[in-house]
C-alpha cells in the first residue's frame, strides 16, 4: 500500500508510525494491580507526538517502584473511602471596592504565540482552553464532567467580564461627576469674576466719562490748563491698574489732553521757559506709559518723518499714544524754535531745554532732536568759526554738547581739531598763548597733541628764544622768556628742558663768564644775579636734570673764578655747554614724577618709545610735515634744537627706525639714531 519505514500510515503520513503493539500482563494480575501500567512504548511515543504530557511514572515505573510502594499502598487504602468535603471560603466585595479596583485591564502576562501541535497539522490558538477543548474525549469518570466544567468556566468568565465592564463604567461615571463638580465651581468663580469685572468696568467708564467731560470743558475755556486732569488720572491709575494696562487706557489719557496741549504749545516759548509741562509730565509718567529711556539697539533705525521704527528684520513697531503726541505736537514746536530763534553761539538755552526734557523723550525723538536740529547748526558754526572774527570761542560752540551727544559729536570734534591746528599754524609767539587752548588738551589724543605742538609751537618758541632773547644784567627784557614759559603746562617737561638747554643756558653762561673775567667783579652781585635767574623758573623746571646741570655749570664757573682770584681774567676757561658733568659735580636734584596721563591715553606704541628715548638724550622728535618718497611714511626730525634745522631725518615702519644710508634708507638702532642726530648739525 506504499508504506515506507519511518513514516506514518495513510496517504499523507498522518497515521501511526509503528504497528499496534500489545503489552503482556503478568499471570494472575488484575487491572492496575500494584500500579501496573499497560500503556506500551509505542502508545507513549504517539502521545508525545500529539503533544500530550507523559508522566515520569509511566516512563520509569521500575526506577520509582520501590520509592512509591508505600504511597501506592496508602492510595489503595483511601481509594474506597469517601472523599472529604473541603469548604471553599468565599470573600465578598462591596460595590465601592469593585469600583475602586476597576480601571484599565492589566495586560495579561502573555505566553506569546500558542501553537496546537496535538493534531496532524500544527495550528495557532488564542488560549490554552481551545487546546483542552480540542483534545476532549468522552470519559466514563463521573467526577470529571468536562462538558459541565467547561460550560461553567465560560459562564463565569462571561459574568466576570460583564462585572468588570460595569465596574469600569461606574468608575468613569464617578470621574465624570468629579469633573462636573470642578467645572461647576470654575464656572461659578468665572461668573463672579465677570460680574466683578463688569462692575469695575462700569466704574472705569464713569471715570473716563469724567475725563471726557473735563476735556470738553477745557476746550471751551479761554485759558486752558492741565491741572484739573490730575485727580482723575491718579484715580484711574491707582484704583484700576490692571484695566489700565489691559485696555490701553493711556489712549484715553493722551486723547483727553492732546487738544489742550496743542493750545498751550502754541503760546509756549521753549528757549525761554524750557521746564513748562515737565512737572505735570513727571507726575503723569505712569498714566502716559512713558517707556524707560534706553539706548537704541544698533540694528534699529528711525525713518525720518515716519511713525514707525524699523529693526534689522524690518519689523514695524507703532508709536505709543504718548510718543505720537510728542512727535506730532511737541517736536514741531521745538523744531521751529531751534531753526528760527536759536544760535549755536549761545548754546545754553538749547542745552537747558534738552536737559529739562531728556528723561521724557523716547530714543527716536531724542535722535531727531540732535541729528536734524542741533548738530547741523553746530557743525556749520564750527566750520565758519574764525579765531580773529568770531565773537565766541571754539569750545563755547562744542563743549556744552559733549556730555549729552557723546560719539555722535565726533564729526564736529574732528572739524574743531582741524580749526585748532589751523589756529596754531598761523599763530605767532608775540601774540601770547591762545586763550583757553589748555581746555583742548583732553580732546586730543596724547600723541596727536604732542605732535601738533612739536610741529607748530616748539619751533616758534625756539626761534623766539634764539633771536629775541638777550642776557643783559643792566636792562634785562624778560618777555621772550616769559612767552616760552607760558607753555610750561602744555608741553612735556623734556621739551621745555631741551629748549632751555639749547637756547637759554649757552647765552646765560657766556654772559656769566664775561662778568667773571672782568677786573674786580662783585661776587655778591653775581650771587644775587644767579639767585634771580634760578628763582625765575618754577620748582618743576628747576628739578629737571638738564636745567639743574645748567645752573650747576654756573656754580662751578663761579667757584673756579673765586679760586683763581686775580688770575681769573686770563685763566678762567670758557664754559663747555655740551660736555656732561662728572659724577663728582654738585648733585643734581631728582625731577618730580610727571603727572599720570588719563587711562584712555596709556597706549604704548613704538613711536612713543622712540620719542621717550630721544627725550632721555636731550633730543627733540619732531614731525616735518613731509613723507618719504618710496615708503610714503611721514618723516620726523631728531634734533637737539627746536629750530627745525640739522639733526637726522627718520621714519618709522614695522617697529623699526629707518635713517638715510647713502641714497636709500635702512633700519638703525636707537643708539645709532641718537649718535647721528647729535653729530649731524
UniProtKB/TrEMBL annotation:
Task: Please list the residue ranges that the record marks as compositionally biased, kind Gly residues.
Answer: 1-13
Pfam annotation, one family: GCFC
Composition bias type Basic and acidic residues, residue spans: 35-53, 71-81
Residues covered by region (Disordered): 1-85, 566-597
Q: Where is the G-patch domain?
A: 1-36
Q: What PROSITE patterns does this protein's entry cite?
A: G_PATCH (PS50174)
GO-annotated biological processes: spliceosomal complex disassembly
Q: Name one GO cellular component term.
A: U2-type post-mRNA release spliceosomal complex
Any one Gene Ontology MF annotation carried by this entry is: nucleic acid binding
Give start-end ranges for the coiled-coil region(s).
none
Which family does the record claim for this protein? Belongs to the TFP11/STIP family.
Could you identify this protein by its name?
A: G-patch domain-containing protein
What is the originating organism of this protein?
Postia placenta MAD-698-R-SB12
